[in-house]
């Protein structure tokens, strides 16, 4: 596991690499962000961003999703994976906002996870990005990078990864680090072909060193 000093080095290096890292889902308000994050489950942000311009033009508020038929909404998001289930969740989520929150997206993570289609990761993203509440949302990139760098253990669950990161990273850096870990995993430490040979973190990454050694002997 990385030492406290090594974790500080990782955080500083990620800041140097991705100083402007931020949420890549296009949105203009908390409700649009919530919809976009729900759509992004098991789907790329790039694909969601292709669908949401027309979607947000047609559906401005929760009542719009409630009023439309399930079938029509499905057609509007058909190019996104799991579109039937996501359409169902968007309608349920919108109904909950109208019934319980006066049509407004709640800032509380505890309230957000009560909404259809909203798990812990989604709640953390919305709380952090829309309401500036410190949070670390663990997606596949954050989990992979945290484990490869030995900030977390390979056997850790997603919940344990989140808890470990929250312990080891200063709270005021949670949200920024979450985005930087995503960028690092999305554009550098990729799942299938990580750029270990030109990684500024190679000196503190046992996984990267192992991969480089394996490549040299093969």
Question: Could you characterize the architecture of this molecule?
Answer:
With 218 residues, this protein is an all-alpha fold. The protein has two domains: 99 residues, Endonuclease Iii, domain 2 (Orthogonal Bundle), CATH 1.10.1670; 102 residues, Hypothetical protein, domain 2 (Endonuclease III, domain 1), CATH 1.10.340.30. Helix 1 crosses helix 11, helix 5 packs across helix 6 and helix 9 crosses helix 11. It is elongated. The two termini are 27 Å apart. The model has no long low-confidence stretch (mean pLDDT 95).
Helices and strands, with pairings:
Blueprint: H1 4-17, H2 30-39, H3 45-58, H4 62-67, H5 70-76, H6 83-100, H7 109-112, H8 120-131, H9 140-148, H10 158-168, H11 174-187, H12 206-217
Helix pairs in contact: 1-11, 2-8, 5-6, 9-11
End-to-end C-alpha gap: 27 Å
In CATH's first tier, which class of the largest domain applies?
Answer: Mainly Alpha
CATH superfamily of the largest domain: Hypothetical protein, domain 2
**CATH structural architecture of the largest domain:** Orthogonal Bundle
Sketch the topology as an H/E string, one letter per element.
HHHHHHHHHHHH
> Which range best describes the helical content: under 10%, 10-25%, 25-40%, 40-55%, 55-70% or over 70%?
55-70%
How many separate domains make up the residues? 2
Overall pLDDT metric = 95
- Which stretches are poorly predicted, pLDDT < 50 over at least 5 residues? none
Q: Please give the largest β-sheet.
A: none
Tally of individual helices: 12
